[in-house]
Amino acid sequence: MTQPKPQTETDLAGWRAGQRVSRKDTEELGTIVEANGKIKVKWDGGRTSYFRRNMPANVRLKEPAA
User: Fold this and answer.
1) Sign of the torsion angle spanned by Cα atoms 57, 48, 24, 9
2) Which residue of 13, 16, 34, 45 is 20 to 30 Å from 4, comparing CA positions?
3) According to the model, what pLDDT value does residue 11 have?
């Protein structure tokens, strides 16, 4: 059985709608609302951002609270 690759900053391949994300440089949070081709994030403040898969992005998955 192969081990899953660690997710890199540019690897958005496994990201799915409904996952929570945050910006790397601020505490802003959002939710992935579409993950078909591009990643569409609806931020809690009302803005929308789009990210391309396999391209550097200023966003990371929000870790679930332990």
Assistant:
1) negative
2) 34
3) 59
